[in-house]
Write a structure and sequence with these properties.
With 357 residues, the protein is an alpha/beta fold. The protein is 20% helix and 25% strand.
């Protein structure tokens, strides 16, 4: 596509953003109603490489608060507009620059990470992903796929901050970033089967499903899926790899400045119940007789109101609120006793430059 007007990105002179859009055809060779044949996209030039950006694709819906999300089902010939980022999942109020540290956030939430910054009003229906696909001479060969999990202690952050354009262009890979539920919306738990928790991890598993089901149509090699993450995103990537929901689909792990063995990376079941009771008490639900009544009370609380209490009662730098229980984390303890759990997964671990600055 020839562009009549290209803007130069002030952060990187090699990066030219095409301000015009077109419907871009994606080869669809699968009978799968998760695959969309054509999407409206953005074209970005980085050096001599064109990168297609597909932004704000909704991958799942949250039917009820504190329940697992369900994948979006689309018709094979459906066209969606994917030219703008989706809304944020609600972070802690104090993480939104320009706000007083309490909810509701007005007029917007601004989240910064290095040179990257996004502004948005957080919403409860926030499960969106972004895809960055390089158009290179090697298009005949299927490209490796990178699923990137953002950090933020499971309490803050968004995949929207991470522009995958440069990595896609330089690495000749397909990059996928995304949002998942945070804080109590993603990790509130009773520590047992009544409220399993780890919903943010289940959201991540749905992204892996989406990549595996659609990767081939995007020009990707679904036998070469790498899941990477930074800070809390690193142990999340590891948890996904050892979870039964992986089903052997992850080929490589990239763990940056985070480990599943850190004390802050997970929460014991008994501590999870203490957190639940604190949240229930702060929201006027603590005087209910049964657990189910308390949970229903929290489900009926206004989204902004419950978030304000969350800022005061569910924020801690000591853990990410991933709970070691339930179906998702059933193999966490056994993995230390099995020699072949990750035998076919390449793992690269390390620390990022200037960590902590």
């Amino acid at each position: 596509m020839d562009s009549d007007s290209d803007d130069i990105d002030s952060r990187n002179p090699q990066r030219h953003v095409d301000t015009t859009h077109e419907d871009h055809s994606i080869d669809d060779k699968k009978e799968n109603n998760h695959i969309v044949n054509r999407r409206s996209s953005r074209r970005v030039n980085y050096g001599n490489v064109i990168v297609r950006q597909y932004l704000g694709i909704e991958y799942a819906r949250i039917n009820k608060r504190f329940d697992r999300a369900t994948p979006i089902v689309r018709e094979n010939d459906q066209i969606i507009k994917a030219t703008s980022l989706g809304p944020l999942c609600k972070p802690t109020a104090g993480s939104c620059l320009g706000n007083s540290g309490v909810y509701p956030l007005a007029p917007y939430c601004s989240v910064n990470y290095g040179i990257f910054s996004v502004k948005s009003i957080p919403v409860e229906q926030c499960l969106f992903l972004n895809v960055f696909i390089p158009v290179t001479p090697n298009n005949e060969r299927k490209k490796a796929l990178l699923m990137w999990i953002h950090g933020g202690s499971g309490q803050i952050g968004t995949g929207n901050i991470f522009d995958g354009t440069v990595l896609a262009a330089v690495g000749d890979i397909i990059v996928i970033t995304f949002n998942f539920r945070l804080n109590l919306f993603g990790f509130l738990s009773s520590g047992d089967d009544r409220l399993e928790g780890n919903l943010g991890l289940y959201d991540q598993a749905l992204v892996l499903d989406w990549i595996y089901q659609n990767g081939d149509a995007l020009g990707g090699d679904i036998q070469r899926i790498t899941v990477g993450g930074h800070s809390a995103g690193a142990p999340h990537a590891y948890y996904l790899a050892i979870s039964p929901l992986n089903n052997g689909r992850i080929r490589r792990l990239l763990l940056q400045s985070g480990s599943p063995f850190h004390i802050w990376s997970h929460l014991k079941a008994q501590n999870a119940m203490e957190q639940f009771n604190t949240v229930a008490n702060d929201n006027g639900c603590g005087n209910m007789t049964t657990f189910d009544e308390k949970l229903q009370c929290l489900k009926e609380r206004d989204f902004d109101s419950i978030a304000e209490h969350e800022h005061h009662s569910y924020t801690s730098a000591n853990h990410t609120n991933v709970v070691i229980n339930g179906n998702f984390m059933s193999k966490f303890r056994e993995v230390f006793e099995e020699n072949d759990t990750l035998a076919n997964v390449d793992i690269l671990m390390g620390s990022t430059d200037d960590e902590g600055k």
